[in-house]
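Minutes, methods subgroup
Present: GH (chair), OT, SY

1. OT presented the first of two proteins processed in the latest run. Sequence and structure tokens recorded below as shown on screen.
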Amino acid sequence: MNDSIKRIPSLDGLRAVSVLLVVFSHLVGPLPYNIENAVGNLGVRVFFVISGFLITSILVAEVEKTSTLSLTKFYFRRTLRIFPAYYFYLAAVFLASAAGIVQIPPESFFSSLTYTSNYIEPGVWELGHSWSLSVEEQFYLLFPGLILLCGLARTKKCLIFIVLLTPFIRVVNFLILESYVGFEIPVWYVFGFHTNMDALAVGCLLAVYRKQLHDNEQYKNFLRSPAAFCFIPLTIAAIVYNYSYNIIYFGVGITLLNLLIGSLIDWVTVNCSSAAGKILNSKIFVSVGLVSYSIYLWQQPFSKYDAEKWWTHFPYNIILLTAFSLLSYFLIEKKSLYLRQILENKLFNSNSKNLKVQNELSRKTV
């Protein structure tokens, strides 16, 4: 694998911003124009696009080197990256429920355990955020097989088709449900894989077309210009400000937001020496970005602004969120990645250099 993608500047910092947006959206009360939900949605979408970008970078590098993909190796790596911290969180919540600390019906755990909560709503706050993890897990299950079956050239066409098709799927969903007066919006309407797959596809397309884009002088000049610095963030902010469940937002707004996030990812990696890049690559932002997966898992029980429990009130919520996130990261995440490194070397006979590069990339991927 090319060492140039060993560490991508600014992405850890951008992941830190994303998870902080999610935490902020849960900590604050209702804001004008539903801003708190829009900010949380933005944070999750940035995670989706980054995941698509990094996973595709890993898979494309393997295809270019070996002319094939090892699905066994990919799923082995994803399992030890994702499952330990996630199921540790679910086990802790289950024990808290069994002890009467929180009230969660046992059946509510089913969809979270099976990564289907983006279609089967758990119905409890402590498990509600598992919808986005379900979307990502479904992506991990499907996308490598698509590359293996179709090859890179056809996969690129499929990704473009997905980006064009998904807005129509969202609009059809909206029009069907709009005809039901007083109909409660089902979870799949907003959280389903079929209504979010274009965010992941945009990240994938950035990975496969990035070199071609950077060979285009006009595109490169735009990325490095003050115009890009102003246009991309301000347009994202305008869409977030106008966040609303209507046909325009589902049809155009989300698609444009995904594309702008892809542009933002490319912008922050190219302009890593700018003032914004220096902030994203600072020690504090990189550190938060590295722990972002555990923070995302554990922010849910401590960040419900209107909960009556003492652990959801400041400063206890911040102290406990920090403590449990660090515990999850150092006790579960880091140890499972270390185990993965040892087992991968034995099971797949990877040489140490390639193993180190793969681990560096996967370390930054939710």
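2. SY then presented the second protein from the same run.
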Amino acid sequence: VNMYGLWWLGRFTEGLLGTLRFLLLYFVSGIGASVASTFFSESLISVGASGAIMGLLGALITVAMMKRSLWPASVRRTMLVNLVIDISYVFLDPRIRY
């Protein structure tokens, strides 16, 4: 699922931000998510691309809110609803413990 998310979101985000900003965002988000996961979990160490992909989602929401002129209102609204649903799925997933 992470690879599909990266493929789908990565192409879109890289097109908006450019390759260098995309890579920087991806790696900073991934490292930040791993640090936060280690800090907030009791003795669990986690690895994976989920945190980096959530960083891409957050960047897309930010771009959609700050650069409203890039898309018509209906497209922006649909995109934001889909991004919020994607993010909320993470918090509703019963396999994830908080």
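Chair's summary of item 2: The chain has a mean pLDDT of 81.
Next meeting: continue with the remaining queue.
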